[in-house]
Amino acid sequence: MILAGGAGTRFWPAGRRDRPKQLLSIASDDSMLRETLVRCADLAPPERTWIVTNERQAVDTRTEAPEIPADHVLAEPAMRNTAAAIAWAAARIARVDANAVMIVLPADHVIRPAELFTRTFAAAAQRATDAGTLLTVGIEPTGPATGYGYIETGDAVAEVDGFSVRAVKSFKEKPDAHTATRFLAAGGYLWNAGTFVWRATAFLEALKMHLPGHAAVLDAMEADLDAGRAPAAEVYERFENVPVDIGIMERADNVELIPGEFSWDDVGSWLALDRLRERDAKGNVTSGDVVALETSNCIVIGRPDHVVATIDLDDLIIVSTPDATLVCPKDRAEDVKKIVEELRNRGLDNRV
Amino acid sequence: MILAGGAGTRFWPAGRRDRPKQLLSIASDDSMLRETLVRCADLAPPERTWIVTNERQAVDTRTEAPEIPADHVLAEPAMRNTAAAIAWAAARIARVDANAVMIVLPADHVIRPAELFTRTFAAAAQRATDAGTLLTVGIEPTGPATGYGYIETGDAVAEVDGFSVRAVKSFKEKPDAHTATRFLAAGGYLWNAGTFVWRATAFLEALKMHLPGHAAVLDAMEADLDAGRAPAAEVYERFENVPVDIGIMERADNVELIPGEFSWDDVGSWLALDRLRERDAKGNVTSGDVVALETSNCIVIGRPDHVVATIDLDDLIIVSTPDATLVCPKDRAEDVKKIVEELRNRGLDNRV
Fold first, then answer.
1. What is the model's pTM?
2. Mind telling me how many Å the CA of A315 is from chain B's nearest CA?
């Protein structure tokens, strides 16, 4: 089950309300959703793959995922965070297969190599099948990042296909720099990558216990769930806006973790292109027709039918789209969302 | 007579081979040619105004100058510099009016105020009528610029309507910084603005004497000149490629100068916008939809249907057009022509 409903404001101007990160070609010439589908093909065939997106992005999502049965693309009539999205999918999936194990993955992460990814999640699925627990795959930190949540792990409780299964002590919100450094020094803290593995029925049991309001909304959706159709917005909007990490994982006592040792990137901003794309001899990442004179360490995204020309620049991000252009220093990549806010403030909603 | 045939590579990407500086709106929302026509209206009515352009730009030039009779827009079949362009116009004008005085003006300069401009050139025209000399209007330097040629003046020889007419000793090529400083210290050196005033017949006499090859090409064009049509390219191409300053003015002994005391700007690069356009509180010059966060002293040229967004930038030039974008520091504005060269080298001729 692929979560594909993000907003992607940090990839403006390429990313828009109706064209979120997962529909962009960032790590390669394929969209991130397409890469995710390819990566998942060894874990589940298309007829057992589900995507949750929202109504605005549903058409483009279905276009990008033509092999997925149309009724497996669930288009939320309102955005109510991951607990709701997963609850809807779990309820649908449990109706199709009462024994189904769900692997929940964001559509907009870059994970390599695919083979290690597949083995890791296959092991997690095996554990979920055998033990009925709620699993997450955490990422071994490569530094004291403050942009991710952390998961504090406990003792190893099992081993599956060579992967260690550990108990989870607690989920930590994004820490400050001091706390992140302490986590790394202490060891046993992994990044929360928002990936989950469980039996659909185990999740629905946990939902009844820890988010009974969500379970009640599923009850109200019963006829829609049986018919395989989207619920009315006024029903779906009753879901509390809460992420699954906080609503379920922090509260449940049968949570386990398998460390993911693959390379993982959440592609948080344009800066990710420096990590994911090939850089030229001067350290530039370019796309489209680019004429870069005396330019180094820049990210310059043009288009096939548009030249972007630069002289004597360093460490800048330049992105050209048909109706908007961005120019900002690399160390301000996170602030691109401020542009989106400003455009909204000015009523330029057709540019966000 | 307006010289409107430039290339304008320093205004890329707005300026193109077929859309030179004089067809761009740089100093105001009107094109520079339009501003020039308005400025000249008090010196000569449309039916006595002539424009020399080239074949590629002829349609756009006529569109921009609808009040000028179509057969007064001379479209050169080849670009052969100012001596040829003026020779063609002079020969046509002399046929229409044997007593005509020509005021030769580039189409891509900004001159203010118009009233002082009009009085200055009217005085020059009076002197040309009375004395039959070849006049230029030179500009009092405001600093030791190295981007202009200089004219070394001699004694005052007359006064017309309060304007001093001076003898001209020599024309100087663009000087180095040391020489320019020496010119300013010495006094009597004015900038060569490429503006000329003379009787058409006086110019044609000078042509016979100093550029006899040009006079011979005019003889070969006689039937075309009588008929008021453009000559064949193979005839026009016989004109030697030489500017009128060097071909005529440096050689003739009846050259005079009137100092122009109006404000004059040759709009040499994008940097001119800092001088000619209003700057906002942060020193930015912007056009079109621009979102400039923490941005100062930048020139940002968007379009009505295109947002250009910036964060944390200083002293940059950013220009967005439908098929090309430029980003460069202000102190590299002169090097924009290198972009054009590079595009030509890459065969991207449709972008220059």
1. 0.89
2. 12
